[in-house]
Amino acid sequence: MTDEKKKEANPSKEGNSVLEVLGVATRLGLTSFGGPIAHIGYFRDEYVNRRKWLDEKAYADLVALCQFLPGPASSQVGIAIGMIRAGLPGALAAWIGFTFPSALALVIFAYVVQRFQIQEMGWIHGLLVVAVAVVAQAVWGMARNLAPDRPRATIAFLAAIAAVTWQTALGQVLIIVTAGFIGWWLLPKRSVSESSSIRIPMGRKAALISWGLFFALLLLLPLMRQISSGQWLALFDSFYRTGSLVFGGGHVVLPLLQAEVVPTGWMSSDQFLAGYGAAQVVPGPLFTFAAYLGTVISGWPGALLATVAIFLSSFLLIIGALPFWEWIRTQPKFQAALNGINAAVVGILLGALYDPVWTKAIQSPADFSLALIAFGLLTIWKLPPWVVVVFSAMGGAILSLF
């Protein structure tokens, strides 16, 4: 790498500004429609092409790292870039800027839904229907990339059957872990080129502390929840555990969150899916769906707690993983395990497409037709998801008149 490129990939402390990171991330949070894959493209254009905060190879390595870790991949990429640019304050600024706009919009939507009791209005049902098209598109796209051959497609189908049969948070975790072991032992092992050098402001000592906190919270929060009956602790545990165990990010969070908030009686399936549909309209990370759920459960304090909890593991994982990444990604067995996990993610999402998305939304031939049109607009006409969501909401309102 030339000296100039090293300077771009490893910027010095001079000129690094937390406010600069916050401003750029906020603009991305206001304009990044289209889901995690689109977010990666927006980030590349802004951080690599326009601002040259890091080079192409360094950016590709960060994306690979965040795809490997559980949690929201696009948010983790932003957090990592903020950390590289301006340390831990930069990471926090990148997260706030990218997350706050959509979280605020979903909090407002939750209050509107509760205050005016509009769950039964036709446009809300249109949001439930468009969720079918959005999740179907995600399954289709992810299957082509993550389960392209017979072994991984088989893992995906078996995971879908298990996910539909065993609809619990523990079931989701065991499916992911089992798929990882299958990939580790059975899938082909391929060597991976070494990653480019990236200046990491956190050392390995901080990384080990971060890993310790990550696993301590993951193991102790459920135990503390059994001892204490407080709702705040239960809320924090549910959302932290979800953020810690969702591989694939994006729409894969749906079944895990549904298993946490609906069976517990915190909200109805209709309230859950209405919020999920609304989350498609706003830019930014889909994990801000937690802000809507927290608002329905306990108002704006619940929204704040749920949002912090679901993203906290992303900070701990990024701090813990960055210093070790150059070694990890050269290990073929880790890559094989990841391939198995990614195939299982496709299966889990396929199971979620059936239940709760399809079973709650498609109640008539008209609903199926609207979902099919929305799917065609997304996959064939390549319209932005927010446009399709608005169209489906209007379609649901029109259908309710007949």
TrEMBL record:
Q: Which PANTHER family match?
A: CHROMATE ION TRANSPORTER (EUROFUNG) (PTHR33567)
User: Where is the protein found, in the record's own terms?
Assistant: Cell membrane
- Keywords in alphabetical order, please: Cell membrane, Membrane, Transmembrane, Transmembrane helix
The UniProt transmembrane annotation reads 92-112, 124-143, 155-187, 208-227, 239-261, 273-297, 303-324, 336-354, 374-401
The protein's topology relative to the membrane is: Multi-pass membrane protein
GO CC, sorted alphabetically, is:
plasma membrane
Q: What is this protein called?
A: Chromate transporter
Q: Which InterPro entries match?
A: Chr_Tranpt_l_chain, Chromate_transpt
Provide the family line: Belongs to the chromate ion transporter (CHR) (TC 2.A.51) family.
Q: Name one GO molecular function term.
A: chromate transmembrane transporter activity
